């Protein structure tokens, strides 16, 4: 009983090691904003070094930067902080180039950072909503696999969406 | 444990995937070549779903033609359910114009979020922007097409000026503009020897996307049988999953009090219900396809009260799976009362509960044209949150929105100044249909 209450009150530090060997020392409260880290902490408890072979240092750093802001803003929670978070999120995604955005999204998804995934998918959606079908194929490197005539049929069925 | 539950509530799509995933056992190697990051995201069904869920309808329908995978993701019933969680909230109303010169009836569209000064629907002015349709011409129908009912995103439509025996029924999704034509009703009655079709008394669309991506159409038909006095009644059911009409019952011949109420059925709480004025009401359980009687004399409209107590029945309808009725209460005198009482029916149909009151005196103080309290209640609309609910009121020349919580009202739609002289200043509540955005297949 007493031991569990001390672990929650002290600020525990975790070491996160990215695929390229870059390590980050972060407070547990920050890192556990990521579902995957939270699960590991809950399941394995004592482990202080966590290796993340699927994220490189650059993107892990950005993800943790986001976590840190949100963890800090949430500790003294009142209504104003929602606004601060929103404003900060907007800044965070504003100038991301496409490549960074998609890498970040994969990292966030891999680490189960649900809120961050929400934010980034929203950003992707806003970027692609006005695109043409051909541009979507270009962006996601997709080849049309419809049989001859099928694509025309689908387009015809939804012709008003192309107006 | 509790953490996973939290995710699950928020993001049902991703929860399944994330539950088992921890970084160590993830064997998919991270693609680090920069130019392929979008490709990797695009190749991940869960992420792609999350992105697509955040797109408006138009690009979504457009992107169906990107590839087979895009088509299958966007067409998936789970996707449409996640995109418009049920019960769905309506975002506007179609008001059938009392007069129109063309074969197809015309509709005004009232957008709850964007009040506008209306004009003639046939003119393509800026006000027509955002309206899902002005008139229905998805098929070339010589009798014209009109709407007869709206149900959770789908519209039941039918030939407009056709005699009942020549009516064709359609189910139309105004969001995706897809339609299907229902097969003709059986011409011979079932259950021992049949009889000839005499009348189609009521046709009701039943669609609950939270339970099934398929819909049913429930129809009350009556038959004339040789040598039998009086008509025989049956329920005919069409299912978008199971195909042609099937006949149910033995209603025949129903007692007069049931018969009286067998029009304008409403789909609510899993069943199509016909509320008769007095006596027994019946309902048809859509999932089990079972016809039941409601022993309780649950009156929607109390005819005797109407006359004696200054309470007048004004509206009856469904929104977000809540059933409402509205009564107009007046008390004469120096401090005259004019108010609308909005009731909701409890799920077990035990009683009507007073939900809200709308003071009409305040409205008449603002709008002089409303001095004589001539009005229609067009709709009671439930919001996602209870306190976002409101009532849509039609006073001469205007359609108002009256918010329950704040007790405020404002003009949604202005029909004064319409260039169409024949336009009346009122719409009929029976010709008002809710618009609910939906990706459901028809």
Automatic annotation (TrEMBL), chain A:
Kindly tell me the pathway this chain contributes to. Answer: Protein modification; protein ubiquitination
Alphabetic keyword roster: Kinase, Transferase, Ubl conjugation pathway
**One GO-annotated biological process of the protein:** ubiquitin-dependent protein catabolic process
Domain SKP1 component POZ as annotated: residue spans: 14-72
InterPro entries on file:
SKP1, SKP1-like, SKP1-like_dim_sf, SKP1/BTB/POZ_sf, Skp1_comp_dimer, Skp1_comp_POZ
SUPFAM superfamilies this protein is in?
Answer: POZ domain (SSF54695), Skp1 dimerisation domain-like (SSF81382)
User: What would be an example GO MF term here?
Assistant: kinase activity
Domain named SKP1 component dimerisation is located at 115-161
Which Pfam families does the record match to this protein? Answer: Skp1, Skp1_POZ
SUBUNIT field: Part of a SCF (SKP1-cullin-F-box) protein ligase complex.
Q: Which family does it belong to?
A: Belongs to the SKP1 family.
Role of this protein: Involved in ubiquitination and subsequent proteasomal degradation of target proteins. Together with CUL1, RBX1 and a F-box protein, it forms a SCF E3 ubiquitin ligase complex. The functional specificity of this complex depends on the type of F-box protein. In the SCF complex, it serves as an adapter that links the F-box protein to CUL1.
Which PANTHER family did the record assign? SKP1
Return the protein name: SKP1-like protein
- Species annotation: Trema orientale
UniProtKB/TrEMBL annotation, chain B:
Residues in domain F-box? 43-83
Q: Name one Pfam family in it.
A: FBA_3
Which SUPFAM superfamilies does its entry note? Answer: F-box domain
- Ranges of Polar residues compositional bias? 21-38
For the region Disordered, give the residue spans: 15-41
Q: Which SMART domains does the record associate with it? A: FBOX (SM00256)
Q: Which PANTHER family match?
A: F-BOX DOMAIN-CONTAINING PROTEIN, F-BOX PROTEIN INTERACTION DOMAIN PROTEIN-RELATED
Official protein name in the record: F-box domain containing protein
**Naturally occurring in which organism (per UniProt):** Trema orientale
């Amino acid at each position: 009983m007493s031991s569990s209450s001390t672990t929650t009150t002290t600020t525990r530090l975790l070491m996160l090691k990215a695929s390229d060997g870059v390590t980050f020392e972060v407070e547990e409260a920050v890192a556990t904003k990521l579902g995957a880290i939270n699960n590991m902490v809950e399941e394995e408890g004592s482990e202080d070094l966590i290796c993340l072979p699927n994220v490189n240092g650059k993107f892990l750093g950005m993800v943790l930067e986001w976590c840190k802001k949100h963890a800090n803003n949430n500790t003294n929670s009142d209504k104003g902080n929602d606004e601060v978070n929103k404003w900060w999120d907007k800044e965070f995604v504003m100038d991301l180039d496409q490549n960074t955005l998609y890498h970040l999204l994969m990292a966030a998804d891999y680490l189960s950072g649900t809120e961050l995934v929400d934010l980034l998918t929203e950003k992707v959606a806003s970027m692609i909503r006005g695109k043409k079908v051909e541009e979507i194929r270009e962006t996601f490197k997709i080849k049309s696999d419809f049989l001859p005539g099928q694509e025309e049929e689908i387009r015809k069925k939804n012709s008003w969406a192309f107006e | 444990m509790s953490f996973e539950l939290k995710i699950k509530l928020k993001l049902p799509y991703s929860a399944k995937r994330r539950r088992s995933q921890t970084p160590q056992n993830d064997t998919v190697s991270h693609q680090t070549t920069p130019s392929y990051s979008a490709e990797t995201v695009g190749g991940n069904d869960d992420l792609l779903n999350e992105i697509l869920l955040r797109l408006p309808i138009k690009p979504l329908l457009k992107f169906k033609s990107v590839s087979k995978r895009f088509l299958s993701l966007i067409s998936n019933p789970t996707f449409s359910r996640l995109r418009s969680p049920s019960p769905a909230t309506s975002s506007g109303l179609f008001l059938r114009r009392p007069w129109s010169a063309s074969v197809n009836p015309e509709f005004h569209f009232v957008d709850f979020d964007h009040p506008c000064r209306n004009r003639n629907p046939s003119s393509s002015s800026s006000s027509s922007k955002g309206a899902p349709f002005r008139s229905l011409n998805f098929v070339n129908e010589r009798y014209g097409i009109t709407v007869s009912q709206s149900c959770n995103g789908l519209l039941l439509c039918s030939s407009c000026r056709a005699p009942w025996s020549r009516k064709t029924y359609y189910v139309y999704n105004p969001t995706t503009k897809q339609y299907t034509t229902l097969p003709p009703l059986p011409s011979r009655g079932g259950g021992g020897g049949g009889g000839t079709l005499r009348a189609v008394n009521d046709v009701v669309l039943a669609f609950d996307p939270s339970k099934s991506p398929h819909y049913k159409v429930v129809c009350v038909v009556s038959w004339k049988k040789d040598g039998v006095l009086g008509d025989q009644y049956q329920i005919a059911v069409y299912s978008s999953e199971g195909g042609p009409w099937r006949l149910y019952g033995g209603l025949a011949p129903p007692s007069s009090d049931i018969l009286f109420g067998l029009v304008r059925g409403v789909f609510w709480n899993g069943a199509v219900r016909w509320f008769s004025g007095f006596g027994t009401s019946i309902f048809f359980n859509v999932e089990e396809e079972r016809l039941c009687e409601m022993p309780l004399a649950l009156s929607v409209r109390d005819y005797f009260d109407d006359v004696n107590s200054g309470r007048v029945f004004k509206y009856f309808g469904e929104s977000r799976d809540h059933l409402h009725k509205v009564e107009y209460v007046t008390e004469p005198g120096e401090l005259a009362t004019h108010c609308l009482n909005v009731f909701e029916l409890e799920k077990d149909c035990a009683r009507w509960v007073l939900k809200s009151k709308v003071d009409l005196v305040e409205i008449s103080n603002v709008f002089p044209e409303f001095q004589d309290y001539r009005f229609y209640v067009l709709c009671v609309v439930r919001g996602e949150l209870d306190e976002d609910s409101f009532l849509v009121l039609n006073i001469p020349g205007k359609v108002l929105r009256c918010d329950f919580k704040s007790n405020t009202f404002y003009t949604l739609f202005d029909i004064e100044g319409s260039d169409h002289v024949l336009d009346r200043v009122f719409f009929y509540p029976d010709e008002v249909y809710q618009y609910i955005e939906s990706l459901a297949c028809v």
